[in-house]
Specification:
Layout: H1 8-22, H2 34-41, H3 46-61, H4 82-98, H5 129-142, H6 147-177, H7 183-193, H8 201-217, E1 223-226, E2 242-246, E3 249-257, E4 260-261, H9 263-275, E5 280-285, E6 290-291, H10 296-305, E7 309-314, H11 315-324, H12 332-345, H13 350-360
Parallel strand pairs: 3-5, 4-6, 5-7
Antiparallel strand pairs: 1-2, 2-3
Helix pairs in contact: 1-3, 1-4, 1-6, 2-5, 2-6, 3-4, 3-5, 3-6, 6-13, 7-11, 7-13, 8-11, 8-12, 12-13
Length: 361
């Protein structure tokens, strides 16, 4: 079955036209899909935001495009290369046109929800909010009938994406600006932050903040890179969840788990460290982190046999130890600013931003 070809130059022009239309003074979303769009774009599922945007853009450009298609080889009427359209048109221009309102992902179609041939209610997804988002997305795209409808919906989407991003940024900026207190307040904030996992994002942020505190405690200006949690297609330079550099040299790499994991998960992390020519891995467990099929000693022995020293730490203990021995000048505002910096770097979910704000309140 022949594929539908999407002209990328025309697609970019269409996206720019939708953005321009959404910036007109007094504009308000008005398409019949506006409520569904708001729920998906402002929801916690990053990949589905890109799927929705890509489908609307494809249909707005080419009326024969099937908005339920996720892969070029779907074998259905109206199949098109959704991944190429997203990665070559939407992703490179998201920061310029949408203020990274979709999440700033670099290769969203490499994530599991976009690896199916088509969007279907039978696609595997977490129960709860993610499942409800899939149902809403499928319902909206199934009702999309014309290129004009798609363009009007796309116009609403870019407006909502930019507005919700601005709202999130303003909220967290205001809360961080009011943060007061010293080391005791820092401990309370970091412990409050990891009281909710948000798919492991909060623990990763706290681990990065603690590494920053370690650096300043040693009067070192470390460069700390935190990578998006549970996202494929990140930088080829990524080794662990958090990589720390000093004068351009890797000095620390850390893996953070805030859920039940297995030996093969740790082994995969160890193999990445070894392949990078590094010989130490810090494995940090969040409050919900535990190994299901092994013991700490077995993990350490497995890693040692591969030539990598595995150092296992519990995040709660690290918070107490690192912050307690930090310089007396360490303040809550400083730490909160670093956490929000890493949140931006890791492109965390809106739910995680709310959790930061709640932990500071």
């Amino acid at each position: 079955m022949p594929k539908v070809a999407i002209d990328h130059a025309k697609a970019l022009a269409t996206l720019e036209r939708a953005v321009a239309a959404s910036r007109v003074e007094g504009f308000e979303p008005s398409s019949k899909f506006k409520d569904a769009i708001k729920g998906i774009v402002c929801g916690g599922h990053l990949t589905y935001r890109y799927v929705l945007t890509t489908a609307l853009l494809a249909k707005a450009v080419e009326r024969n495009a099937n908005p339920l298609v996720l892969q070029a080889g779907a074998g259905v009427l109206g199949a098109y290369d959704a991944r190429s359209l997203c990665h070559k048109v939407i992703v490179p221009h998201e920061a310029r046109l949408l203020d990274n309102g979709l999440g700033g992902s670099n290769e969203p179609y490499l994530n599991k929800p976009a690896r199916f041939k088509t969007l279907s209610l039978s696609n595997a997804v977490r129960a709860g909010n993610d499942k409800r988002t899939l149902i809403a997305l499928h319902s909206a795209l199934s009702r999309l009938q014309s290129s004009q409808e798609a363009f009007l919906a796309l116009r609403d989407l870019v407006y909502i994406a930019r507005k919700q991003k601005a709202s999130q940024t303003a909220e967290i900026t205001q809360v961080v600006g009011r943060a007061l207190g010293g080391r005791t307040a820092v401990i309370a904030f970091l412990r409050g932050l990891i009281s909710a996992s948000v798919h492991g994002e909060t623990s990763a942020l706290v681990a990065a903040a603690l590494l920053w505190i370690m650096g300043i405690s040693r009067s070192q200006k470390w460069t700390i890179q935190i990578h998006p949690v549970n996202e494929s297609g990140t930088s080829s330079n990524e080794i662990g969840d958090i990589d720390v550099y000093s004068d351009g040299k890797l000095i620390i790499t850390a893996e953070v788990k805030d859920k039940t994991f297995k030996l093969h998960d740790v082994e995969h992390a160890v193999d990445k460290v070894k392949a990078a020519g590094h010989h130490t891995l810090h494995f940090i467990r969040g409050p919900r982190g535990s190994v299901a099929d092994s013991s700490d000693q077995e993990l350490i022995e497995m890693s040692g046999n591969k030539g990598v020293e595995l150092l296992i730490s519990d995040l709660g203990c690290l918070i107490d130890d690192v912050v307690s021995f930090a310089p007396p000048s360490l303040g809550l505002k400083q730490v909160a600013e670093q956490v929000t910096k890493y949140a931006k770097q890791a492109r965390v979910k809106a739910e995680t931003l709310h959790q930061i704000a709640n932990a500071l309140s």
